[in-house]
Amino acid sequence: MKGTIKGMLHLCIGQEAVAAGVMSVLKKDEYIVSNHRGHGHFIAKGADIRLMMAELFGKSTGYCKGKGGSMHIADLDLCHLG
């Protein structure tokens, strides 16, 4: 199935306020480790949506070169450990 997301995709729908609230009190250089619904945390931390979507679609241009998928997106530059 070309052009589809492989594996599980745990959305953050209805939990956006939690991510926004937590990220609003963190300093830029503080690291986070999120849960399986961590897309909101990653976005609130400053993630590039294009790179995030590339990761979800398993593309080599994604944050983890397409290998992290939905639950393991990480970026050390953003202090996000996945």
From TrEMBL:
<dbReference type="Pfam" id="PF00676">
    <property type="entry name" value="E1_dh"/>
</dbReference>
<protein>
    <recommendedName>
        <fullName>Dehydrogenase E1 component domain-containing protein</fullName>
    </recommendedName>
</protein>
<dbReference type="GO" id="GO:0006086">
    <property type="term" value="P:pyruvate decarboxylation to acetyl-CoA"/>
</dbReference>
<feature type="domain" description="Dehydrogenase E1 component">
    <location>
        <begin position="4"/>
        <end position="74"/>
    </location>
</feature>
<keyword id="KW-0560">Oxidoreductase</keyword>
<keyword id="KW-0786">Thiamine pyrophosphate</keyword>
<dbReference type="InterPro" id="IPR001017">
    <property type="entry name" value="DH_E1"/>
</dbReference>
<dbReference type="InterPro" id="IPR029061">
    <property type="entry name" value="THDP-binding"/>
</dbReference>
<dbReference type="GO" id="GO:0004739">
    <property type="term" value="F:pyruvate dehydrogenase (acetyl-transferring) activity"/>
</dbReference>
<dbReference type="InterPro" id="IPR050642">
    <property type="entry name" value="PDH_E1_Alpha_Subunit"/>
</dbReference>
